[in-house]
Each structure stands twice: as C-alpha cells, then as structure tokens.
Amino acid sequence: MTPLTPSKAVLHLGLTGGIGSGKSTVAQMLVQGGAALVDADAIARQVTKPGGAAIDAIADQFGAQFIRPDGAMNRDAIRALVFSDPHAKKNLEAIIHPLVAQETQRQALDAAHHGHQTVVFDVPLLVESDRWRAKVDRILVVDCSVETQIQRVCNRNNWTAEVVQSIIKTQARREQRLAAADWVIFNQGISFEQLREKLADLPL
Prior knowledge:
By secondary structure, this protein is an alpha/beta fold. The protein contains ten helices and five strands; from the N terminus they run βαβααααβαβαααβα. Strands 2-3-1-4-5 form a five-stranded parallel sheet, with helices on both faces. The two termini are 26 Å apart.
C-alpha cells in the first residue's frame, strides 16, 4: 500500500478507542462537521460479505464451515476461533488487512479529490498496528474507563460481561492508546452536546 502523503490541505486523522468508548459517535460528529470518514470495520465487513473479496481465501484457509450458507463469513465462528488461536488470528489478518488497506487508500484519495480538508480513519486496532502511525497526521483517542466500556456494550449488544472482557483483552490496553494519542477526548459522564463541544475545541 502506498503511504498516504501528508498534506497541508488535508488532515489525515486516525480515530480510535476501545469497544464501547463512543468512537463511532465521535466519527459521526466529525462527518457532520464536514470530514470524510474511512471506516476500517465497515470495509472489513464489506470484504467478508457474500461475494466479498476475502471469502474464497477464508474458505481455503479455514474451511467451508467458516462460511455461512448465504456466502458470508461466519463471524461468530471466526471470532471464537481467533480468540482461542493466535495463529489463526494472524492468518485471518493476512487475508483481510491487505484488502482493507487497498480500499482505505482508494476512499482517502477520493475524499481528497472531492475537497474534504479532514479525512478520518476510524480504525479500532490503530494502536495495535504499526503501519497506521505513518499513515495519519494525528491520532485522536476516545477514552473512558474499562468499567464503562463493559456496561455500555452489555447494554447495547445484550452480551455478558465475560464476552465484553474477552474482546477488550484482544485490544490495546487503555494506557497504550493514551500513550499513542495526540488528542484525547474523555467520553464519560457527559452529554452528546458536551461531547460535541470537546470536538469543537480540537484544532481540526
């Protein structure tokens, strides 16, 4: 993947945060303010949907049982596998990440072509992936306590605390994200309007 070239006209902003931090809410607020959004999770879902670019390679690598009858990747089965097998996780990433990188680059160039001054890269694993730091100009971390993460995701997804904790363990530690951040928004105990005000205070 060709590195994104920093430009005075276009700010490449890496946006990340742990599950339940409110990262997606912040992303939508940035879009409402005129930014273009490149959503790595959405792209990953696109390449693993029926007919997606990753499906054949996933079936070859892991077996047909990891593809649903409708032709999409069986996300529940894959999630259980990669949580228990780090080697399987690396194999899955080797399939999906290059496809996501290619589409990410295409969308970023398209956004710049259409005059967006800020391109937001919504990347859950931004801190965990060494390649992303060189591809963004600034990193914005949406932060909250681990207890708040668990409560929000349990309420939102109707998951058990144990399931949420297992996902949190696969992500960077809160301290790692904060250490990598250029800007931090503490999204806990505040209203949507207060969150919007915190965003407005950033030098975007």
